[in-house]
Design goal:
The protein is of the alpha/beta class and 283 residues long. It contains eleven helices and eight strands. The chain has one domain: Metal-dependent hydrolases (TIM Barrel), CATH 3.20.20.140.
Length: 283
């Protein structure tokens, strides 16, 4: 058996402000085969948002970028579209929470059309800011998140969440939202998860672990019920942040070579868990 599939569950590619296609090529040269391409924020696209429809160009651009990467590299690219929590915070500062929430929920509805048509694989990254904000902004974030969970439930698709660090409070809140919306928790992906996957998994949610060698080795001590990601942001002002595009393939291969990760378990993480969570077969 050989390692046929290596998936980065969460990365960004930015032709305007980063390496663009070269980052995707580096991912492939390192051994990557599949990437979930998450849209960047409006400022990265040079889009000024004043209404929900302005997000259409961002989502279309992400899909077109994914198609270009796939054509140029042969990688399997799965676009993920949505409204980042920091985008909502920015809109709240400009328009107030009521109007910002109206724009953002409309944008999520637009994103749902991309998923429904098959142009995007999932909704995301949507959730709550990982830094302190005013109570009304935090409440708006919760309302947007609950709306997005409802949309994902209706579509039967997965949703990638950006939230504060894992805590019992966070997962208590998410559990209430799961109950309120009816979404299956295994369709929820906790982006930027740490190695303590047990806290996420006990709620039925899929952790996507930030893939340092140490994190993945620690996560494997629990089980193989997680995904791997680099959260590569592709910004020339922050080269290699959060982790470089080669990270997931390199770490996976290193752990296989050192016997920490078996080929069977690697296939489970990079293929089986992906297919179960997102509801489609990888090529």
């Amino acid at each position: 058996m050989k390692l046929e599939t290596i998936t980065d569950n969460h990365m960004h590619i930015d032709p305007a402000n980063g390496m663009g296609l070269e980052a995707a090529k580096r991912f492939k040269r390192a051994g990557g085969t599949c990437m979930f391409l998450v849209n960047k924020m409006s400022k990265d696209w040079g889009v000024t948002v004043t209404k929900a429809g302005d997000f259409t160009a961002i989502f279309e651009g992400t899909v077109e970028l994914g198609q270009m990467i796939a054509e140029e590299t042969g990688l399997a690219v799965f676009p993920v579209v949505g409204v980042h929590p920091a985008e909502l915070v920015y809109l709240c500062a400009r328009f107030g929470t009521v109007r910002a929430l109206e724009i953002s929920t409309g944008a999520v509805d637009i994103a749902s059309g991309f998923v429904e048509s098959g142009l995007a694989a999932a909704l995301g990254e949507i959730g709550r800011p990982h830094y302190p904000v005013e109570p009304d902004v935090f409440e708006a974030s919760n309302k947007l998140l609950e709306h997005a969970l409802c949309v994902a439930k209706d579509l039967g698709c997965a949703i990638q969440l950006h939230t504060e660090s894992a805590s019992e409070k966070l997962f208590d809140d998410l559990s209430k939202m799961v109950k309120n919306t009816g979404i299956k928790p295994d369709k929820i992906v906790k982006h930027f998860s740490g190695p303590d996957t047990a806290m996420v998994q006990k709620r039925g949610i899929m952790p996507s672990v930030l893939s340092s060698t140490e994190n993945i080795a620690a996560a494997l001590k629990h089980n193989t019920g997680f995904l791997m990601e680099s959260d590569y942001i592709d910004d020339n002002r922050r080269p290699g942040a959060v982790m470089g595009p080669k990270t997931v393939p390199r770490v996976t291969k290193k752990l296989v070579e050192t016997g920490v990760l078996s080929l069977e378990d690697a296939a489970r993480i990079h293929c089986d868990n992906i297919e179960k969570t997102y509801g489609f077969e990888l090529p």
